[in-house]
Design brief:
Blueprint: H1 6-22, H2 26-53, H3 62-89, E1 98-101, H4 102-113, E2 118-120, H5 125-128, E3 132-135, H6 137-154, E4 160-166, E5 170-176, H7 202-212, E6 216-219, E7 225-229, E8 231-233
Parallel strand pairs: 2-4
Antiparallel strand pairs: 1-3, 3-8, 4-5, 5-7, 6-7
Helix pairs in contact: 2-3, 3-7, 4-6, 6-7
């Protein structure tokens, strides 16, 4: 095997540098992709809604149009996730971070996912609401919601109960809120598969958001899943 000379190594590095100067970086690629998807998608959704208004409920095509609108809605969500992910991948961007109460965060998770899928456990609101996290509240809630949805799927679509446990850190626990169906797994994988399919980019984005918040995700302990976050402050 021949060893490149210093002159060849320098030339090779120069070539790589020139190629890097013409290459679109991944954050910008995701941002452009999200923008390009939204345009034609809005046209499709507009025409689908127009066709819906022209057909009475019960028309043979009504169910088909609802399915089409639901499918385009999922693409809209994918576009938004790609745009959000581009921010977290770009080192020049600084996502907005500010204090948020723990209970407000959990309530947002339930609102985003739906109370039929995620239910917030009862807390001593006087104590728990006083605890604050420093976070991008919207994206952190979306990340926790993605974990809850993933866990629900693993358990056979059973609703997930989330609860905050306050100690040296804030621990968000995830457990089934109803008895598991026969045949449903009583445990979850030892590690969360953030690259699993079927959930768009929600888990991929969650992996970056949780990492940026220095969160630790564990499974198989006293709860099905736990997410540990550093608290901002609380009552003395």
């Amino acid at each position: 095997m021949s060893v490149p000379t210093p002159e060849q190594s320098t030339h090779s590095q120069d070539s790589r540098d020139r190629r890097a100067g013409t290459r679109v970086e991944l954050p910008r690629l995701l941002s452009v992709l999200a923008h390009e998807i939204r345009g034609p998608l809005s046209v499709l959704q507009g025409y689908i809604r127009l066709m819906q208004r022209q057909r009475e409920e019960g028309h043979p095509e009504a169910a088909m149009l609802r399915a089409m609108l639901d499918a385009t809605g999922r693409i809209t969500t994918l576009s938004r996730q790609a745009s959000d992910l581009s921010v977290w991948l770009d080192p020049r961007e600084t996502p907005a971070i500010k204090p948020v109460s723990v209970l407000a965060l959990l309530a947002d998770v339930q609102t985003r996912v739906g109370s039929d899928r995620v239910r917030v456990a009862a807390h001593d609101e006087t104590a728990a609401d006083a605890w604050l996290l420093t976070a991008n509240a919207g994206l952190l809630a979306a990340a926790l919601g993605a974990l809850a949805e993933s866990l629900s799927r693993d358990m056979g679509n059973v609703p997930v109960q989330i609860r905050a446990r306050i100690g040296a850190a804030v621990t968000i626990t995830f457990d089934p809120d109803e008895p598991l169906a026969a045949g449903a797994p009583a445990t979850v994988p030892a590690t969360v598969a953030f690259d699993r399919g079927g959930m768009g980019l929600s888990l991929v984005l969650a992996s970056y958001v949780l990492d940026a918040h220095n969160a630790q995700v564990t499974t198989g302990g006293s709860s099905m899943m736990e997410v540990q976050l550093q608290k901002e402050r609380g009552p003395e």
